[in-house]
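Technical annex, item 7. During the second reporting period the consortium partners agreed on a shared format for inverse folding records so that results from different sites could be compared directly. Each record opens with the tokenized structure and is followed by the designed sequence. A conforming record, contributed by the partner at site C, is shown below for reference.
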């Protein structure tokens, strides 16, 4: 079987969870007997494009290819590079002729890439893995209300328009139909968490096409526990991930300032490992820098890190804190932390609450509450035996090989369905209430020259 894994980025250039997960799956598949795996990653500026073609190798692996695509509308998840897709990318797909095309994100490619694959490879199975709520939510796929950052439980044209007044309810509805029309070209959807799958089913995607498969980790050594001086304690806390407003670093920095000096002492510390700060809004950068300065010796910011550095960095901390103020899905950091046998302290919502069991292999705190988080940090440093008890109960994450084996079974079912067998059964644990199957609608009439008109015209061009 020939499988093409498609990612919006490559972990050699970006350490996001989706990039790490997609590349680990590619490596796991390629190591399996009878499977030939390929990896296609999108790149763009400042990487220079080849003069003759958007396709390039960038000297990665022998079956790892990059496609340079800069023209993209992130609000519509829509490509403006129709000529590139319908020309050299389509020719490359025909030559490769994979049996399965597995997307980890449509960012940078646009939903039109699904239509292109379906046209060029009519017998191939298309799989889409969701890593957040980007199709559902205009607010960077976070499902958080604009303004006051309240959690959002569902999307609707009226509510989304209230968050984004520049979008009329009709415009929100047209975007939804545009994305669903394209997503329904996929044979199966994968979600690393039950929570994320149920959100997409509630949005209107067919439940029977979903499978819940946890992200697999690439092989790496497990960091031993941090060496303690005689009488020392487990008081080093680590944050790993993108430094963005939704990751809750402001809550975490506020929380460490609330822990009494008598509890924090001279040996406790917060170590922040994360990149992308330079790309954040100025207001967030200013607030983050002010909070870091106010934290003084209690917190240190180490900046971005590479994947191969993670074991060493994990070895310097005792606890990992995930204070995200959005639902999250199944952050790879959780799997990595369990692999390195560290307990987690996480917000009590979404995929975090699903993956980390409160009082068993980690601790929950009330989302957005610096006071409650401060209490959990204090408990972590003062409760005898807590650290070891949580570590002993931590699960062993699925590795790339096990993840690849589970995906391969899904690919076989999807291919059988495409060739006339029964539709693959859903593997969502504890599925949500059954909802009517959503059928792909016919193309909506396109009028005028707005975003929907452009998106509709692009879709017809790619499908031609």
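Designed sequence (site C submission):
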């Amino acid at each position: 079987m020939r499988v093409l894994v498609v990612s919006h980025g490559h972990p050699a250039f970006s350490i996001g969870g989706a990039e790490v997960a997609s590349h680990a799956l590619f490596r796991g598949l390629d190591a399996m007997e009878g499977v030939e795996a390929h990896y296609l990653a999108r790149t763009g500026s400042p990487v220079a494009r080849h003069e003759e073609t958007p396709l390039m190798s960038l000297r990665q692996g022998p079956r790892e290819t990059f496609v340079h695509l800069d023209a993209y509308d992130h609000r519509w998840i829509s490509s403006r590079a129709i000529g590139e897709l319908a020309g050299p990318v389509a020719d490359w797909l025909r030559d490769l002729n994979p049996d399965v095309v597995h997307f980890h994100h449509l960012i940078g490619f646009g939903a039109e890439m699904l239509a292109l694959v379906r046209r060029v490879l009519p017998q191939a199975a298309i799989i889409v893995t969701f890593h957040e709520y980007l199709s559902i939510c205009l607010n960077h796929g976070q499902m958080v209300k604009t303004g006051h950052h309240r959690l959002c439980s569902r999307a609707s044209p009226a509510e989304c328009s209230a968050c984004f007044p520049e979008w009329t309810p009709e415009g929100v509805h047209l975007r939804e139909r545009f994305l669903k029309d394209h997503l329904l070209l996929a044979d199966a959807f994968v979600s690393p968490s039950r929570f994320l799958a149920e959100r997409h089913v509630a949005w209107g995607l067919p439940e029977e096409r979903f499978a819940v498969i946890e992200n697999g980790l690439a092989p790496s050594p497990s960091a031993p526990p941090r060496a303690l001086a005689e009488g020392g304690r487990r008081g080093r806390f680590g944050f790993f991930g993108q430094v963005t407003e939704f990751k809750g670093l402001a809550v975490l920095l506020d929380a460490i300032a609330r822990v009494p000096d008598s509890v924090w002492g001279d040996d406790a510390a917060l170590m922040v490992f994360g990149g992308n700060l330079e790309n954040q809004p100025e207001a967030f950068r200013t607030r983050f820098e002010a909070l870091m300065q106010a934290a003084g010796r209690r917190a240190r910011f180490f900046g971005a890190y590479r994947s191969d550095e993670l074991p060493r960095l994990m070895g310097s901390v005792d606890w990992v804190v995930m204070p995200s103020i959005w639902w999250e899905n199944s952050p790879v950091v959780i799997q990595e932390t369990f692999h390195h046998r560290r307990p987690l302290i996480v917000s009590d919502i979404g995929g975090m609450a699903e993956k980390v069991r409160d009082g068993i292999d980690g601790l929950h705190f009330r989302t957005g509450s610096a006071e409650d988080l401060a209490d959990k940090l204090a408990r972590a440093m003062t409760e005898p035996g807590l650290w070891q008890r949580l570590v002993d109960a931590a699960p062993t994450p699925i590795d790339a090989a096990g993840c690849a084996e589970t995906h391969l079974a899904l690919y076989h079912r999807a291919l059988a369905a495409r060739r006339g067998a029964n539709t693959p059964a859903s593997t969502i644990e504890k599925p949500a209430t059954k909802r009517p199957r959503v059928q792909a609608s016919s193309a909506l009439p396109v009028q005028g020259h707005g975003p929907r008109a452009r998106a509709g015209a692009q879709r017809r061009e790619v499908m031609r």
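Residues 422-461 have pLDDT under 50 and may be disordered. The chain is about 35% helix and 15% strand. All partners now use this format for quarterly exchanges.
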